[in-house]
């Protein structure tokens, strides 16, 4: 059975490990190998210790567990951009747990958290254009591709990313994959 809860400071290293593993599995060839293999693990630990040690007031990090094992997480920043609304900064699910509804449940929970806070703002995220499975997943959740931007990744690679959007948090909260 999957249990969901808000992240706490002691969860930082587990979140960082899942994040790093997910990037290695999904972004090989988009990010530099040196970053993915050598720099990223320590960089992600630093990021998540900071995020969970001193959380921003507009931040939600929600975790999915099977027993003691972290299966996935979502990180959201409410009202991040004046034009686009609230940002889903991260969604990662362990490879062994994919296609079990965990990602969809985390996204729905993110929408439900945003709904009472900013019901009239949109919700958006970026996903690499080459990540076709993730793009299909977000489309199944009702997002639309609002365009492609070129950006520099961690580690200095240049990639094309799609901005996926939902018009309101309620659309995300009620989405079914």
Topology:
Elements: E1 2-6, H1 12-26, H2 33-53, E2 59-66, E3 69-81, E4 85-93, H3 102-117, E5 123-128, H4 132-140, E6 144-152, E7 158-166, H5 169-173
Parallel strand pairs: 4-5
Antiparallel strand pairs: 1-2, 2-3, 3-4, 5-7, 6-7
Helix pairs in contact: 1-2
Question: What do you see in this structure?
Answer:
This protein is of the alpha+beta class. It has a single domain, classed as Aminopeptidase (3-Layer(aba) Sandwich). It has 5 helices and 7 strands. The protein has helices at 12-26, 33-53, 102-117, 132-140, 169-173, and strands at residues 2-6, 59-66, 69-81, 85-93, 123-128, 144-152, 158-166. A 7-stranded mixed beta sheet has the order 1-2-3-4-5-7-6, sandwiched between helices. A hairpin with a 3-residue loop joins strand 3 (69-81) and strand 4 (85-93). Helix 1 packs antiparallel against helix 2 (33-53). The longest helix has 21 residues, at 33-53.
């Amino acid at each position: 059975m999957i249990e969901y809860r808000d992240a706490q400071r002691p969860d930082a290293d587990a979140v960082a490990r899942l994040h790093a593993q997910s990037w290695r599995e999904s972004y090989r060839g988009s990010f530099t190998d040196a970053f993915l293999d050598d720099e990223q693990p320590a960089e992600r630990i630093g990021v998540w210790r900071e995020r969970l040690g001193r959380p921003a007031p507009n931040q939600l990090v929600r975790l999915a567990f099977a027993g003691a094992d972290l299966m996935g997480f979502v990180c959201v920043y409410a009202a991040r951009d004046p034009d686009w609304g609230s940002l889903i900064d991260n969604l990662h699910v362990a490879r062994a747990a994919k296609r079990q509804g965990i990602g969809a449940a985390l996204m729905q929970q993110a929408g439900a958290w945003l709904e009472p806070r900013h019901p009239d703002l949109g919700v958006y995220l970026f996903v690499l254009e080459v990540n076709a499975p993730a793009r299909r997943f977000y489309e199944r959740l009702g997002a639309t591709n609002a365009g492609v931007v070129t950006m520099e990744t961690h580690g200095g690679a240049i990639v094309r990313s799609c901005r996926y959007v939902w018009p309101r948090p309620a659309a995300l909260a009620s989405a079914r994959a």
